[in-house]
Every structure is written in C-alpha cells, then in structure tokens.
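Researcher: Quick sanity check before group meeting.
Model: Go ahead. Protein one:
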Amino acid sequence: MEKKIILIGAGFAGLSAASFLAKAGHDVTVLEKHNQPGGRARQFKAEGFTFDMGPSWYWMPDVFERYFKQFGKKVSDYYHLERLDPSYRIYWNDGPVDIPADFESFKQLFESIEPGSGEKLESFLYEAAFKYQVGVNKLVFKPGQSLTEFLDKDLISGLFRLDVFNSIKTHVAKHFSNPKLKELMEFPVLFLGALPEDTPALYSLMNYADIKGGTWYPEKGMFQIVDAMFELAVELGVKFHFEEEVSHLSIQNNRIHQVQTNATVQGVVMHKHYAADVVVGGADYHHIETSLLPKQYRSYSDAYWDSRVMAPSCLLYYVGLNKKIEGIQHHSLFFDTDFHLHGKEIYTSKEWPTNPLFYVSAVSVTDPGSAPVGGENLFLLIPVAAGLKGDDEALRDKYFDMIIERMEKHLGQSIKDSIVYKRSYAHTDFVQDYHSFKGNAYGLANTLMQTAILKPSCKSKKVKNLYYTGQLTVPGPGVPPSLISGEVVAAEVLKAFAR
C-alpha cells in the first residue's frame, strides 16, 4: 500500500533515501530549507566564479556506480569523470611531492622516501583491499539495529583481518617508519574522522580507496552529483519543496501524523502542513531530536550528545583570483607544520590550531569554466575542532592571512594582491545553515565506540514512524557513506511496511 513519506533535507542521504522509497512505489515529498538540493554540497556563483560549497574529493567511484545501477542508470548518463594525475600534491617543509595515479609510480615514490617500503606497501594494500571489499560491500550496509546483523560468515571469518581492535596509527607504523609516509597514510582519517591512534585500522580501507580507486573529478564540479541525484529523484516521482524549513512534528500515539514547515512566500512567512505516514530525517539528527521533538520523544539525552566524539569542523574560504597560479595542482595538502600537534588540537585539547595543516582545491586547474578567463578558483580548508567558541571575522582573517602567506612561500608567487572575490565559512555558518551539532562539518568521528550499533540509531526509539539518515547515523561521514545511508534507512522503512 502506498504511504506518504516525508524526507527532511535534500542532502546526499536525503536524496538517496527519497529515490529508493519512490522506486518502491511510495508518495515521497522532500522538504528542504534552502533554495536548491545538496545540503552541504550546495553550489553558489559570484563574480563569474562557480564554487562547490562542501565536498571536493571524489573517491570510491564504485559506490556511485552501484547507486545509479540500482535505478537502471550509469554515472555516465549524468556526468563525465576524469581521473586526476597526480592525484594530489603534498607540501612538506623541504618541498612538494606529487602523488601519482599510477600504482607502480606510487611504489617508486615510496621506495625513494624509504627503501624497502614498496614491498611493504603491497602487503599493506593487500590487507586494505580485503577491508574495502568486506567493509564497503557488507559492513556499511548494516543498519545497526542489532548485533545479530553481524552474524555473517564473511564478517565473522574475517573479524581479525578487519582489524577493528587495532588502531590505524599502530597499523601504519608496522609497515612504515618514515614520518612522511606515516602522514600520507594517516591523513584521510585525521582530516575526516579522529586521531589515528583512536581510529580502528579497519579504516586503512580509505588508503585502498585513495591509492587503488583513485581521485576523480566530475566535469563541472561536485554539484553535478547533486544534480544527477536530483534529476533521478524527480524522474522517480519525488516531489521537492524548497525554501521550506520544518518547524514542528505533530505526534499522536507515538507516531508523527503531520509535519509543519515555515515557508517564505513573497516575503511573508506562512505555515504549511503535510500529512505523513513516515518521516525520514536527513537534516541534522541532533537538531531534529532537540528542536523538533518534545523532550519525552527524544531517543538520546543531552549528556549522550555532549559525550559524542565529533569529526572536525572547518574554516573554509572561497577565493577568486584574477590571475592563474603557475604549477598548482587540483588538490594540494600543506603538511609543512606539525601534523601531530594539529591533530591533538582538533581532537584532544580542542582549541584553535597554532599553525594548522590545510588543504587547497584549485578546481580551475581541471575545469577552467569555474573561473573567468585567466582567473583561478580556490577552495581552502582548515580542519578545526567542533564546538569551538570565538568564530568571528577577525579570527577568520587571521587564519586566512596565515595560510595564504604559507601558500605564497611554497609557490613562490603572490596571491593576496590578486584576490577579486573572497567568502569565508565556519562554525556559525554550519549552525545557521544546517543546524549543525557543535558546528561540525563531517559528523561523528570514526572511533570504535561510535561504530555500527554504537552510533545514533537510524530508527527512533520512541517515535514509531521516525527514521534518520546522514552523517550522524550509520554508516558515517563522507559522500559515499551518505549515499549508502539513504539506501540503508530506506530498506528499514520498507521492512517495517512489510510487517
């Protein structure tokens, strides 16, 4: 029987869940606060520049192919992918190193830094390949509702090979001793999850995704993924209402029966109401729990939320230049300062960084159309602790000047005097735009105690027809996991209908 399903939020997870539920024959409506889909992956244009607002790395292309295949489509039906070579560049104190896309060249790079490490890399990636195959094809698709989900012969037989009780830091150190190689293998979890010593070695699967899967770029930008998912959802019959923020969930007999939004029409705020058989929250989990539900219907206490270990927030800068930067790569990581100190300032002392690592995406290197002719489009990111106080323009300007000065030193070129557009984005913006818990950018850290059934549940414990999807529930942060999260929660909703 067709059900009326309301999705809150049109981010990657919301778009994914909406499409799977519509494919199953249900009446699906997505309510979105902003004027476009994408959530944190929105896009904006200014002064002739086109900026992707959030995700900028395209890893794990097989996950995207798998997603579209389930609807009889292919990625190439919507956008063209280009593999980047080099995948990215790392700037260390003694100069830059390009990370080649070709694996044999990658091995030679390791050998040049640490003799004998090429063979060790083979061993490391052999183990990482197993984790990737089992983790991405099995583990991440578990909804985390019961331990019995993990009574799977591949998971049980491969438990120790999955390395969930060992840390990525220890695992990397078993294979490599050179500090540069350790940083190269640890950076994916440091930037996106937690300290390497607190992250299960299972996540070496990210190294496999990086080295073997490659770094790609969708022509015209990451927003092409959003556009593709949105187009597919509309084709499947999903209805979208933009610039409507959910303001209230009406509950009777432990079930949501109506969703209220605040919609601005010609400058006037109006209340609109939608009947619902099921509600799926793709917006910030904590916000839905604490702002949209009466206290007696919350699954988790304030103490629970405050005890969560968060992945980083970010200081972001969208910058347009009126000239080209000679020799810059599409992706650059500036590791020219203390890698471990910055990690501890994000996750342990939780303070504004002393002299941070940072990342630069120059999409105009690959996609000249993202900037006016002769210009450069830059996206700069500093990972910082979630929940910090003091995010103001003076602080943002301080860090911007700091990293631009370091860029100019490494590149041997002036940048600041060529800036024609600049916009910053940080904690207060994440909170204002996405109701982001503690201003986080990525969600929960990937620690052992926040894995699978230990994450906030994708099904409300107290409201019978309320489900959750996205970065604060299973399987976790990142674009590919968000696509999977939508599929996982849709399956849970459909399972409930079958009973």
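Researcher: Fine. The other one?
Model: Protein two, sequence then structure:
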Amino acid sequence: MNLLDGGADIALISDAGMPGISDPGFLAVRAAHQNGHTVCAIPGPDAATTALAASGLPSDRYVYEGFLPPKKGRETRIKEIADSDITSIIYVSPHKLVRFLKRLAKFTEPDRWICIARELTKKFEEVQRGQISDLIEDWENRSSVKGEFVIIVSGKTYSE
C-alpha cells in the first residue's frame, strides 16, 4: 500500500481472467478499500463481475441473482440471500435501492458487509463498501438516488 499512500496509481493485472474473480485478488482490493483508496475496475464481461472485482468481497464462490422478482417470491429470495454463506450479486433499480437495503437488513445482522456499485465505467462511477447498517444511513440521507446499481452481499460467515 506504500505506492498508493504516496499518491501513485497501480493496476492489478492477471493472465488468468478477470482479476479479483475467483482468485486472491480480492485481498488486494479489500486492503486498498480498508486504507481509504479508490478502486476502479476495468470492465469485464458485465456489470456484475466488474462490481464483484471492485468490491473486495470474496469471489471464490458467488451467485448471480440479477433483478429479484417484483412481488411474488421476492421476500423468499431476500431471506435466502441473507442466509447464504456465499457472496450474492443483485441488480437494483434506483427507486428501489433504499427499500431493498432495508428489507435485506431485516434478515441479516447489522454488520453484514455489502458493496454498492453504481454507474460503473461512467463519469459518476461510485463503489461504496461497508456494513449494511452504515450504508443504509448514507443512502437514506442522499437527496437523490440515480444510476444503475449492483449490490454485492457477502456471505453470512464473512468478516473482516
């Protein structure tokens, strides 16, 4: 982290696919986040894997949920995600973001780690990670919620 602390930009490059996906690259990304540095993932094949690589959350096993069902079955899926031991990837529309986070928090512990990635590879890109209770508070206090969102939810046994 000395290079980053000194203001240098560094890159994590892999000759075996997308760095940070199913390899120990997530440890380097997590360390960068923990030390207050911005992480920017160069796009992979889709927003889900780009967000996962930038999240610093475990990527050795994950499930892609996409958009959850609008009504029937939605709460059941949220409970399954909350009870899962592996990382989950969910797409959420901006007008449903805070409501989704609150519903997820109802079934998880308040210190569950998540990452909210929005507008990946665009001018207003933002990758924010932390405990669900803290991120809910932050997003509730924003005047507007815009963009395309990918939520990465750590497995229930993950801790830092």
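Researcher: One line on it for the slide.
Model: The beta strands are 62-67, 87-92, 113-118, 126-131, 149-153.
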